[in-house]
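User: Before I run my own analysis I want an independent prediction to cross-check against. Here's the chain; please return only the structure tokens and, at the end, one sentence I can use as a sanity check.
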Amino acid sequence: MCKLSTFFYESSYLLEPQSRQYFHCLLEEITRLNKIDTLEDVFDRFLSNTHIFKDREVLRHDYIPDKLPHRDEQINCLGGIVAPVLRGSPCSNAFIYGKTGTGKTAVTKYVLNRLSSKAQQLGASIEVCYVNCRLAGTEYRVLSSLCDALDVKVPFTGLAVGEVFDRFKEGLDQQRKIFIVVLDEIDALIKTRGDMLLYELTRVNETLRHGRTSIIGISNDLRFKEFLDPRVLSSLSEEEIVFRPYDATELQDILWRRAQMAFAEGALLDSAVSLCAALAAAEHGDARRALDLLRVAGELAEREGATCVSEANVREAEKRVEHDRIAEVLENLPLHSKLVLCSVYLLGKTKVSYTITGDIYGIYCELCDQSGLSSLTQRRVSGLISELDMIGLLNARVVSMGRYGRTKKIRLGVGRSLVRKVFTDNDRFRDLVGYVPNCLSGV
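Assistant: Structure tokens:
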């Protein structure tokens, strides 16, 4: 409300009650119309500023370009693995490892899109299904996605997992296809749900008469195999492809290729691209982060009405992307990792700067009881703490206690307000954030 409106609002108390109420309603309507006009200005300014972006969709994660630079070795390797399906033979299972943003998903989709096109030319009967296990979350939803790819009808919920799996096998056998299953972020499903689904998929060819299936797993965790049962490992017979992070030169080349398609001519300074590549390479070699920085920097320049994207826009974009990235990591953590992080958050309410694994485990077990879940062993929880420490959500350091040995002291590595906001938006964790553990009830 502007100063003049505030003056009228305060002066209205000199009027009669009925007139005052009418006057307040009138002022609120004027304020509402002013806000609408302001929003119209925002929209008009955006529509009139057309000299920054040419096609911003090119900077999105899910955009697959015609060429993937600096990944020829991995493309040829994966292409060689899946090539036998063109002659009607199932290919070997493959597992792809690498940090986030190293091109794993893009290369896999690129190769399989080309494979599908070639198969169509040759008349080969193949089908490809891509499933993000972190988004699917359960065996039921993964199997449901596989059934959808085969046009096998499965209700959203209500069936036993075994029944859904039987329908999948029946549909695959009837269609006599070679079915390539891509399980992206498969480690997220294994850590929360176990490896039974993967075991069943690796053994499914033994029960099929006509159809065949092959698995391509994609994981950010190089220690993924540690979570697998030996029986699953023995039936995988997989080939492995490891994606190394991009260096600054490679990231700069990738950004320039995308920038030429995404930005209007003269709308991007060379120094802005170099800075995006340097920031991303110094941290993880993450192409997604570099593309995010460049896109957000362009959007900020666009909102300001600037004529080109500068280094200052990239610096501002870095602050925004960092905050959004941490929130995304928090939202996508496996369930038990979230419970461990929530335990550390609750311990932080006691104003203790550091806590130890035993205290965290006690509260973690209480949260599992509250959620109706079976708790993991303390050794496994200690491993989850190490993983959270590795990605920066917790800070854990080993300190000497003299003759009492050594212990690990742990505290949150991100802001409490961000943890509270993300968990409050989650239906399962909304009540847990305000839970008072029994061991802290007297504190």
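Sanity check: The mean pLDDT is 81.
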